[in-house]
Amino acid sequence: MSHVSCLMSHVLRRKTIGIIGAGNMGQALIKGLIQTGVAPKRLAVVEAESQRAHLVARRTGVRAVALSQAARECDVVILAVKPQDLAPVLIDLREQVLKRRHRVLIISIAAGVRLASIESVLGHVPVVRAMPNLPATVGEGLTALTRGRFATATDMAVANAIFQSVGDVVELPERLFDLVTAISGSGPAYFFLIFQALRDAGIRGGLPKPIAQRLAVQTAYGSARLALQAREELEALIARVASKKGTTEAALKIFARRGLVRILQQGVGAAVTRSRRLSRVVSGGIR
Fold it and tell me: pLDDT tens-digit profile of 135-164?
């Protein structure tokens, strides 16, 4: 086990964690936590579809329980449900949380639902809001975290440890979460579109589709790893590839003339606007 995994395991060692919702993200967290060293018996899954819950339990060794049991017994409850399904879950949680003698940490990954809306239902309960992205399903996600009024630094350490099991973590104020949604939440689709464009260019030039896709995706993967490890700014990395009067420079000039950077930034801006609008709608439905 790596040094980071050991630290994560230490933070979570005595925690019991309930995951409400066994969709893609819920199952990714179960897998990541177990791989980090959390014992399956300390994990509980709650799922409206009982067949799916028992399937996940059999495959992973975690317990399939009712929401009321998870709320009573777990130190941490992760809300991995769709925003439109969150309101009744919060109401049921409130009834159980109010009966508890010991505090419970609530972590919500319901997209767009603001901390104030959750706290308005649960009261003086520590809440952390998390915004993971799709690569978390393969352990390479980026999750943004922000804490509510009653969450402590210790609560944030627990949330960090949980989401480090599926990738990297950053802590940001909630006011930036719409921008996070537009960049890292929606971002995988932008890159998939670029991969597709490069793949299709290769196919038109005569490459077999599997080879063209492999060239595009593996090049992106290697470039991402290089960008993460390099000390240079992105502009310097571009310059390392784009030699004077070379093939890369020829392509970059076309991109510049057609306004590729401006188009991408406008797309992010549109995603931010939509995220803010949706957040108002889903958060308003919780209160």
Answer: 999 999 999 999 999 999 999 999 999 999
